[in-house]
Amino acid sequence: STLLALQLAGGLWYGRIRQPYRYLMASNLIWRICLALLFFTVCLPDSSSRFVMPILFLALQASFQLCIPAQTEWQVNAVEHSGGNRFFTLRETAFMLTYTFFMGLAEFWIALAADTASLRDSFVRVGLFLVVLILLSLFFLIRLPAPQPSGSFHTWCTLLHPFRQKAFVQLMFTGILWSLSAVFSSSFTILYSVRILQIDFFSVMLWSTLGNLMRAAITPLAARMAERRGWAKTLELFALLAILLTLGWWKTTPTNMQYLFPVLTLLGSVPVGVFGLGMFQLQIKASPAQERSIFFSTYSALNGIAGFMGTAVCSVLIDNIDQQHIPI
Q1: 51 half-sphere exposure, CB direction, 13 A CA radius
Q2: Short-list 71, 99, 87, CA closest to 14
Q3: CB neighbours (10 Å) of residue 158?
Q4: Global pTM value
Q5: Are 204 and 193 in contact (CB under 8 A)?
Q6: What single string gives the DSSP state of each residue in 164-231?
Q7: What is the pLDDT of residues 118-140, one digit of tens each?
């Protein structure tokens, strides 16, 4: 969450460079290489891997966060006038289906590991699989049309522009509240499932995977609803669903968890997916085309700060729970 603040630098930098295509290609290449190498650090001696792994992870996160504002502006400007709403809905659905399949496969391989040697082999297997996927993504990436220069030079004062747009300020405030609620909800849901309900890893993995598939199926339906009612009204309905799911966890006990846990886990990721897509669509409408990298990066940075603060508070509360200062 903290590294999301790097998106501010990425959005500002992207508005200053003269060759945006090279910047996009270089940053995309760096984070993809770091991601693939990360899984092969298990082949190094322990004394080396404990240093190489965090360095690769930080390089991966930094290059990815610096790249995101530029890449988002690139995508939005390329499809905005040719069915952009449907494109982003299709992208969200395709991403969740692909992510669910390959993440489930990776978790299955790792879950089968019986000892350290087989666990290392599983990580290498996942790494080789990632290399193939990364090469495939690069094959399509270099064939995309080059982005057009924005035509405006971004200065540090440009970072204040999102705060001068009333509609965008309201979006940022809503996003911050959603990030805080998501951090608290996910943290204590996991704690409650493991500590009190004693749910095994396979059940969590199974129902989470099915929940991702449910998210991929419902997101297009939510997008169709938004075409008729607008995204603001649609998000209100799914925010209500998130509240009802949270109340459902409050009523879940070891005696009824065999019924409530599958339902709550199955539906849990649906509001997250719809809210992410809807807020993104609203950001596009509320931001000027020439400064989208700044507006998107500001939104993400504030959400990252909110997520960091929420995580810190949750950590303190969980520590108190562990010490039995707070009953769960």
Answers
A1: 3
A2: 71
A3: 19
A4: 0.80
A5: yes
A6: G-HHHHHHHHHHHHHHHHHHHHHHHHHHHHHHTS---HHHHHHHHHHHHHHHHHHHHHHHHHHHHH-H
A7: 778 888 888 888 888 888 888 88
